[in-house]
């Protein structure tokens, strides 16, 4: 078991790499793959499907390592006439007079070491690009789209982002060079992002920046098209189009390879436990992959291969441009008896320990043992399950370590069975050394493990955790390298983990306790992965406790815009056990809020709808479950806000109506429910804002008034409710803005005064609430704008100054809040404009320059905020127009 596998780069024969050396069968699929590379076959999408454990991933790994070769036409014509065994051996060994076909592969079941998921278009396509660049491919338009998306969404400031851009240096600071290296981890810090933000608004740099990309083949119209797209709702969807456009262009250039292969593994991972969902819930998950495949289909020089458990359902998608005829479907089934026999003979040849165990067997004994193992691992006549067969070998190895050499008689007389996992696993555990068995139970509790975790488990659970013991474990067929975590990480095969958890959970439970305890201290050290791992093990020990923590942590991280931790938690979410439908609703609602915040609108709506369905299920069980009615109202409001953003006004109004009905249901059950009154006030305000936007001013005023009354009801029951006072201030401000719009100036001033009083009440109760200080600043600015319009200049200056002071207090409490910096910049700009109108040029320029500082601070923290970018650009124009001399001095400084 200690043999060195070259493909594993010095690792012992472990999991996939051991299996790769013992690879058997799939002759027709190997021929098919080679034919696509060497002949002008009708282009299509190769799709390999089959049960889990049948070796689809292994097949792709074998094809990529050994078969990505193109021969001369004459040699190919001779080669394809050879027998299957000769054909496979020649293709595998050929090193001369062949052209290596560039190949890029993605396994959707894996996650990067920093938890970015390849199921997301950005990371998946960036990975393909990274793998193809060493072969001379260039993706100029796609690279510019990646850069612009990264800049606009703030991804460039994420030190965990793997670099995705060209190698050439841009003159925007040394820190960017590493980012553009194309090979190392991103490491572009906040100071480099500040440089990007500064230079993007410098016209001379903008011209140089544009020329840089044009020299690399990006046309001006492409640049303009990309920059005009909204990054999250448009540009992200076009990334597959740009990638396909560049790849097809690269394949037509002189000296380009004659073929390129793209491999996509574990397609079912897009859905996890949601694989059975229908309609948009199903199709929205892998839309970017379908879009890429559509743009590449019909290209005879580009071969796309997808592997998954089920046949694709793409042709059934409402908006799908892929038809059933675009797929070349092939089943990856079980092994034949002959292939299983070949596998066992290869195992004896390649595995030192297995060969030593069989050393005293006669050839007849070996043949009888192989026949017995094959019969034992059949699931149907002449169909041997590869995973069971590997485990059967492990049984012999485990018994051999106990000086118990098994024979054919030990595996005789076993009937065929469709599901034989439990029996095979139990036999392995019964023959294994107690130390090894205990280690397997412990490691099966891990999502993945390394040597440090192995030792920690051994120390706590009292099994041998030496280097030698670790090497023995790595040699079993069910221990696979965990590529998603990087070098030195491993995992127990999913089938084994699932069966042990199902049938032997009590033996896994102590390991879950140790692992939760192991990961908790790492959270304080800033290990983002440890947060998710600790929650996973907590959930296994107590599903309610773990799921409740997941919901609490996810909400907190999303509130603070820590999207990377949210992605890590979403990766764990697929393996979480939930207590009931209500908990499922909370989890789906949080997922929807995450996608909504990133403008992944289709996914957000899908999760919101799933949350609503889950709450409805919970309410069928208990129609008076107040938490479910309240939460359903919340998610309906969120869906309405999303529909409002998308200008689906009728849908939004309907969602708001349903949300109000949910809160009314709570109030029927509990007439004094403060939370329901407060929530109802919030959705009434949202409805009023939409009606205001639609110029339905009468309805908007009525909604605002109803919202105020709802907050008053909440405050009657709880006069110290800070959130209700704060939110009442918000709706009074909105009512004032409406009255301002309708030139009802006295009424507007009164609404603003009442709004300020509500914020003051909130601040009496919670003087350190930065949100209330910020909101008070907003209404003071609005009052100042109205007073300025009424030519009450002294009053306007007082309101603006009071607003600045409110923002300063908010920033004292929360100095890194980008929205407060933005709001302070806005009021300084308003005061500067008032001073310009009064001829106070010097004072005006001081205010405008101070506003620029605040907008810059906001963009340092949240560089992707398009509104703030536009405001700063408008401000630059004002400064250039009214304060040119001061602006030049400030720029030099």
Question: How is this structure best described in words?
Answer:
This protein has 893 residues and is mainly alpha-helical. Helix content is 65%, strand content 5%. The strands form four sheets. A five-stranded parallel beta sheet has the order 4-5-6-1-7, with helices on both faces. β8 and β9 (383-384) form a beta hairpin.
Task: Using brief descriptors, characterize the structure shown.
single chain, 893 residues, mainly alpha, two-stranded antiparallel sheet, 41 helices, disordered C terminus
**Overall body shape:** globular
User: How many H/I helical runs?
Assistant: 41
Describe the strand arrangement of the main beta sheet, using strand numbers: 4-5-6-1-7
Radius of gyration, taken over Cα atoms and rounded to an integer in Å: 32 Å
Largest sheet: 5 strands, parallel
What is the mean predicted local confidence, pLDDT? 83
Which structural class matches the secondary elements? Answer: mainly alpha
Helix content: 55-70%
- Low-confidence stretches are 1-17, 156-202, 886-893
Distance between the termini: 67 Å
Strand content: 5-15%
Brief characterization of the structure:
The protein has 41 helices and eleven strands. By secondary structure, the protein is mainly alpha-helical. The longest helix is centred in the first third of the chain and has 21 residues.
Task: Present the secondary structure layout.
Blueprint: H1 15-21, H2 27-38, E1 45-49, H3 56-67, E2 69-71, H4 73-79, H5 84-93, E3 98-100, E4 103-107, H6 121-132, H7 140-153, H8 174-179, H9 190-200, H10 203-215, H11 220-228, H12 231-251, E5 260-265, H13 280-283, H14 287-296, E6 302-308, E7 327-331, H15 337-350, H16 352-357, H17 363-376, E8 378-380, E9 383-384, H18 386-401, H19 421-431, H20 434-444, H21 451-461, H22 467-474, E10 479-481, E11 490-492, H23 494-503, H24 505-524, H25 528-541, H26 543-559, H27 563-573, H28 581-597, H29 601-621, H30 626-645, H31 649-669, H32 674-693, H33 697-717, H34 722-741, H35 745-765, H36 770-789, H37 793-813, H38 818-837, H39 841-861, H40 866-882, H41 884-892
Parallel strand pairs: 1-6, 1-7, 4-5, 5-6
Antiparallel strand pairs: 2-3, 8-9, 10-11
Helix pairs in contact: 2-5, 6-12, 7-11, 7-12, 9-39, 12-14, 15-17, 18-19, 20-21, 20-24, 21-24, 24-25, 25-26, 25-27, 26-27, 26-28, 28-29, 28-30, 29-30, 30-31, 30-32, 31-32, 32-33, 32-34, 33-34, 34-35, 34-36, 35-36, 36-37, 36-38, 37-38, 38-39, 38-40, 39-40, 40-41
